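Batch manifest, entry 17 of 40.
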Amino acid sequence: MSDGDDARAPAESELIRLLRERAAQLPDEPDPADDADPFDDFDGWDGLSPTVDPSSRDLLSQWADEEHIETESPARHWTPLVVAAVILVVVAVLAVGVRFVLDTGGDDDDAGTRGDDVEAPSVTDADPPTLDDLTADVTVPPGPAEGLTVADKGVTIVEDRFDAERREGTFAVIIDNPHADWLAQGVQVDVRMLDESGTEVGSDAAFLEIVLPGQQVAVGALFFDAPAVPVVELAVTLDVARWRETGPFDGDFTIGEIVTEEAEFSGVRTAFTLRSDFADPLIDTGVTAVYRGPDGQIVGGSDTFLDLLEPGVATPVEISLLANIPIDQISATEIYPAAGFGFVPDQ
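Output type: C-alpha cells
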C-alpha cells in the first residue's frame, strides 16, 4: 500500500465505529403513537467523519434542526352532525325531483313531459283589445231623440294660387244644437264631396269639442288637391260621443265689429274682437269664420284657437282664409265661437 492508502484506513474505521455506536443508541422498536420528531435527539453531523467539509456539516446540521412538515393530507373525521346534514340535503334533492315529475305529468292518463316543443302562451300573441272591448263596461246615457242638425253648408273649388294645373278648395258647415237642456261633447264632422251623379270625389273631416245647449257652431277648412270635376253637394255626417243633460247656461259670447279685407298675397283676412260673458275663464276656445258670397251662399270657411278668454275682456282675433278667392266674391262674414274641453260645466 502507498502512504495515501495508509492515511485513509484509520479514517474509514473510525467512521464505521461511529455509525455502529449511533445505531446502538436508537430504540429497537419505536412507538408509532410517539409524535416526537426523530431528529430531536440527533447530535449533528460534526462527529461522523473528519473528511466531511465543515461547510457541508453546517448545512446538514441546519437541515436536521428545522421543523419537519408533514406533506400528507390530514385524515377526515366524519362527525355525526356532518353525516346528518348530508342526509338532509340528499332527502331535499329527492323531494324536489319527485315534485317536478308530478307537476309535469299532467292530469290525463298519458304522462306529460316538458320539452322544447312545448311553448307557454304569451300575452304578446293575443290580438290587442278592440274599442268595443275597452268600452264594454262603459255606460253612456242616451241623448235626445234628435241630435245635432246641419243649419247650412257650402264649398268652393278654385285654381291653386301657385300651380294652375291643380285645384284647391274650402268648405264650411254650420251646426245647430236645437236642445236647450243638452250639451254635446266630442262631435265628429265627416264631409263627403259629391259630383252631379252623386259619386264621392273627395272627403274631409273636422272635430268640435263642445256644443252648448241651444248654440250654433261651425267648422271650416282649406284643402288641397281638390277634385277637378265640379262639386255640387256636401254630404255631412255628425257623430256625438256623449250627450249631457245640463240645462241652459248663464253666459254667451259677444263679437265685436268684423272687418274682412283682401290679404297681402291671396285670399282674405278677417279681424274682430271676442268677449266671453261666462263667469269662468275659458281655454282652447275655437273660433270659425264662415264666408258668404253675393248670393248668400256659403263659399268657404277658416278657423283659429284662443288659448285663454278672460271673463268680460274683449280679445282681438284674426283669421285668414288662404284660398285663392277674390275679395269681391265675399260679401258677408259670420263668426262662430265654440267652447273647448277647458270649459267644464258645473250644472
